[in-house]
Amino acid sequence: MRRYSIMYFISQSFKGLWRNGVMTLASITVLVSCLIVMGSFALLVANLNENLDSLGDMNEIVAFIDLEKTDEEIAAIREKVNGYDNVKEMEYVSKDDALAEEKAKYEEDYPDFFDGITSDIYPASLVITYEDNEKVETLKYELEHTEGIYKVNCRSDVAETIETMKNGIIWLFLWFLLVLFVVSLFVIVNTIKLAVFGRRQEISVMRYVGATNWFIMTPFVLEGVLIGLFSSGIAFGVQVYIYKFIQDMVATDYGMFTIIPFEEIQMILLLGFVGIGVLTGIIGSCISLRKNLRA
Amino acid sequence: MIEFENVKKVYPNGTLALDGVDLKINDGEFVFIVGSSGAGKSTLMKLLLREEKVTSGTIKVDEFDLARMSNYKVPYYRRQLGVVFQDFRLFQNKTVFENVSFAMRAIGEPNSVIRKRVPAILNIVGLQNKMKNYPRELSGGEQQRVALARALVNNPSIIIADEPTGNLDPELSFDMMNLLRRINKSKNKTVVVITHEKNLVDHFQERVVRLEEGKMIEDRVGGMFE
Fold first, then answer.
1. Do both A99 and A182 map to the same domain?
2. In this prediction, does ipTM exceed 0.90?
3. Which of A20, A152, A237, B124 is spaced 20 to 30 A from A117 at the CA atom?
4. Considering the entire predicted model, what is its pTM?
């Protein structure tokens, strides 16, 4: 492409944007809004996933040992369970520990309740943290069929819920992304259509004098690209501000919630914004120009 | 050379616009296409510009076969043509120079060529002193000459003028037609003028092709309107 052609295309694109100022502004506003919503949702999903993953790490199974088992038998059970696959950590809670836990919970409110109660009525238990959520059912089965264990409390339902939630959030995000993409596309299509309408006489003359389709089309596609670039730049700036604000707020008020440092995700966010913005611009322009590209 | 062979054009709504037209126009000829409203003149022009495709028959313009030509070749074919419209189709926000140079820019000519060629063409149509004027500052005749300059600037071999004097008074119409004839004779360009102006056709005594109801009913050199 010759240098003067590039300059011509760029100048025509800027003129087009300027000429349809109101629609350009409307397009940028809508695209910025859509990008911010998309970006916020993406960041929310990323952070939720991060936190759900760490919630998953807290999954544990509690196996209760028969009351009548002796210390030697309990030691044998502990050794056996410790050898099971998928056991990450195992904590032994003795009968005395169990009574102490109960007292810690209720003695203050019901001081007389524990009179005469000994640790014999409390079963010893094994609190097992496992490595892999997906293999939890196997571990549960093994524990339930272990001689000397009479009851197993498993929070595999929590793990499942977490997985379901993660999948649901991702699907919701993808649908959201699609809807916002279509909305952005619709606005850009109309902006470029207006630009094409405003220059219909030029296009008609260009066609009669033998301008090629790409020569006619390029300034409009560039207009779409410029709208996409401006929008992604603005959206990124606003997103940085919003994220940092939330980051500060979460760090101050909700200490148990971890938030991904912005520096770790800023590049992917910027590339995502520019990619979606420019793609929307190009596709929008091409849709608008389809009819005008007839020979 | 322009060659129509048994050309038929039926629009999707069923209107038969041209029916078995055979027409041959040699290089450097000057031809008036005349006929009443609905005779098929506009369709003939659309076919020649390859805005429409024939339903049957063939149209050949130099090495281009318009019936079989793929769409991507159309712009390159149109560079052989210079088109002048009744309503001038000038850009009111561009100067005379910019209006004419627009046609060169649209086919990617460099500035250095544009700067040389546009004044030369404006000189041919007698507007060398109006380069910086805007169309609104020109008379109807001058505006049509700008349109003619734009049609000529890419050095086409064929000039197609669709009612070029339709918006001009009689005196300016004669001037315009004289200019077209001068270009035809001096530059050896084929000129096809679609018109319904009897006085002009009768005065210039050129080849006249008459269409009626989609059929070519007369083709006479030195013909009159009726």
1. no
2. no
3. A152
4. 0.68
